[in-house]
Predict the 3D structure of the following.
Amino acid sequence: MEFSLISLIIFVIVGFLVLSILLYLINAKSRRINQYALALAKLKRSFNELDEQAKLIVQTDLELNKAQEESDKRLNSLEALHKISRLISTTLDESEIFHRLDQAFSTDIDFERGVVLILDDKKQLQIQVKHGYSQDGANFMLNQLQKDNNLMQALMEGNTFSSANCPLQRRETIKQIFNTGHFVIAPILTQVGFIGVVFVGNQSNVSPITDGDEELISILASQIGQTLENARLFEEVYKSSQALESKVTERTKQLQDALVEVQNISKTKSDFISAVSHELRTPLTSIKGYAAILMDGKLGDIPPQVKERLGKINTHSDNLVGLINDLLDISRIESGRVEMSFGRCRLDSLIENVHDLLTPQMRDKNIDWQTDLDASMPDMFLDSSQIERVFINLVGNAIKFTPIKGTITVSAHLKDNVMQVQVTDTGIGIPEEDIRRLFDEFYRVENEINQNVKGTGLGLPLAKKLVEAHGGEMWITSVVKEGTTFHFTLPVKTEEDILREREEREKAQKK
């Protein structure tokens, strides 16, 4: 009995130990199962994350490929646009522009169909370029387009339409007109406004229209408009130039004919003046001679009243002789028959001689005489007698129009091998409208002094022609009620210069 109890106790203990061991093992396995479950869950999460990342990578790759394709397409389009722009901008012939565009639509623009329509003189669209259309198909398209007033109005307002962006109704309308599935249509505009349309399109869905395509065709339409405008402006300028050239040629011929006529008239006038002057000289010499004989009493005593009138005849004869001499001198200078006697002279000495000659007239009006001459004035080769006449005319004119106690100043300064001479007075001055005509023969300014003092109006024209015969120029500046200045120039020439000019003049006369 005791043995059985002990055995039972031992069995219970062993069973408990076995059970404990089994429970331990079960717990250990359970922990390991839990660890494996956690690891499996973590692995599943990692796998799911990797799957999402893989999907994102694939999606990103697809988007990158699409962006790359779009970028490549856009780059190719820009290259094509640059090529076309350069191609059409290197000519100013309108027909050649369309010919080059026709080639470009076939080789450089990646669309199945394309047309360029341009307004003619009657404001009707005409087909200038067509690609992918038969002639009948193009004519049908053109007729349908011009009938759609709403679409035409929208294009004239500068709107561009594409199958990617335009409203459904308008998209369907354009598809029917141009018989395409995908398209871009853009207006051609210039500074004067709408002049045409550019259209491109595809029948298939292989290459759908993108925003880049729309931008490309818009730029192309703008480039076509600018090129056509330049060509038309050039054509207008060329035609205007031709017309202007024709008018200039015609006008030049008219002016040449008029110049020849003026030269003939001038020669006739000079010949007439010369002939008349010579004819007048002889009777004037006789009149003056007879008056002198009568005044000297060689034909008997004459009453004082008769002698006084003979004196007037003699004085007026002298005036007429002076007038005739001036006319002859002007005539000779104009015809080139005058012969200058050039010689070495001092301009300051010549001016002093003129002062001595006219001192009595200046003394009568108490006029102050002043000079401003270069101290280093060179010797000059001039016809001293003719230049003296110039000074006598100018200073005499200044005395005439300078009031009592006025001032006359003569200045001469060398500048760039040209003697600059001025004769200035403090007289009544000359109005601007009279200055322009003062060197016309027989012209006299309307003023109180000229009304009371007689003159021929030949002194200043003669002085100007004598200066020009020396290679110089003469002009006038004046301020009314302040005074007048006569300016003239005399080139400083050597004796060799004078001889060379004389030889050239003689050769010209022989020709």
Q: What stands out?
A: The mean pLDDT is 80. The chain has 13 helices and twelve strands. The first strand starts at residue 113 and ends at 119. Residues 2-89 form the longest helix (88 residues).
